[in-house]
Design brief:
The protein has one domain. The protein has a 4-stranded mixed sheet, with helices on both faces. By secondary structure, the protein is an alpha+beta fold. It starts with a strand and ends in a 5-residue tail after the last helix.
């Protein structure tokens, strides 16, 4: 089960047709042009990146991942992670898994 954060980050291509990419992420097969950034599944990571096909593996599907970013290609997903990291650092002056969760829990975006 995927939970979509209200202030999800998107690259330019996804921003034009977000519903299309959300549908692609829900499919149970690998689709190269859809990558999701989620809150971490464990306390050691800041964020997790999944190609759309991996979101349906048994572990991920059973834990209800919260999607905080979606991109159309590998290059864009890396840029989105950098943008999210910069925004969190600007707001809190530090970066940690707890701050990432706090940043998206308050539905804030700079």
């Amino acid at each position: 089960m995927l939970v979509w954060n209200r202030n999800m980050y998107m690259d330019e291509k996804v921003r034009k047709r977000p519903a299309k990419y959300k549908r692609l992420a829900h499919r149970k097969k690998f689709f190269r042009r859809c990558y999701c950034i989620t809150l971490p599944a464990n306390d050691n990571n800041m964020m997790d990146i999944y190609p759309s096909g991996e979101l349906w593996l048994q572990y991920e599907a059973s834990h209800g991942l919260e999607v905080i970013g979606i991109a159309s290609c590998e290059e864009s997903v890396i840029q989105l992670v950098a943008e999210i990291t910069q925004d969190i650092y600007k707001k809190y002056g530090d970066i940690s898994p707890e701050l990432v969760k706090k940043f998206f829990a308050h539905n804030e975006k700079l």
